[in-house]
Known about the structure:
A: alpha+beta, 3 helices, 36% helix, 36% strand, B: alpha+beta, 6-stranded antiparallel β-sheet
Amino acid sequence: MKINNINSVLKIGTIVVLSAAVLILSACTFLNKATFSIDSPSKSEKLLNTIENYFKELGLPLERKIDFSYPENRKERSYFLGRTRGPIPLHTTYSYVVLRVEESGVLYLDWIKISDTKQVPKPEYFEQAHTKIENDLKTRFGVDVKFKFIEPK
Amino acid sequence: MTSHVLKIAICLSVLLSTGCAYVEYRRIYNVEPSISAEKRTAVGTVVERYFLDKGYVLKQKYHDYHPDDMYVSAFEIPRTTEQKVRHPYLSVLVKQTGIVQIKHSEWFLDTNPFGDSKHKPKDLIAAAREDLITRIKNQTGIVVDIQLFEKGYY
Lengths: 153, 154
């Protein structure tokens, strides 16, 4: 009788430990990012304003808008692109696009996915989106831009 | 029998270790009443200088336009590794709505889910409250009060 009780306790304990392991694994969060510099004859701050107006026209919801003055001068604009589920129901992905002008004066665009899975974003995946942005900025705002992939360090 | 005891010990160890976690200690105080833009900046500067004088390290200053329109100065609170805390920050927020806020946030290792953990931080703003009110009055001539606005888990 005593041994049966111990076995029951062990079975319940094993289930609890395995459940905790599943929860811990599914609760891991990864920040997957692909960074591109935006090259243009226009000055970065003017270009930033132009792209902000363009994103506003597209209806992208502005999440954060910050101008840093210390320890360095830089600007950041974050836009929320949406939430998706998968590949299993426990997994969720939040997508963002971030525009930032660094103190160097270079304008960058980050495509970000905060996800329960680690994903390595390939630059080719964004080609179609970049071509559309380049064409729209040229036709609507008269601005020439080119996206250049920045290899992660 | 030994293997049964070992299995029970492993189960208990996992349960206990997942019961210890870092939790956020958060306190937000408002400097009241709401004041004009010019006075807000002066009050914010006095508060920033106070914590700089205490040895807090200025890490960031920025203007947050959206969603809230406010100027933020973020200080790192000096802590030792023995104190088992993460991201110990104190921020001074000067909001365009007329409010000056002081926000204390740090994540500490909660080793006692049934009571107070020995790593739980003290309320820094409450401890500095009287000094701050006096300093603001002496340096700006403005009479203010500092009231608790929000607290986190504890």
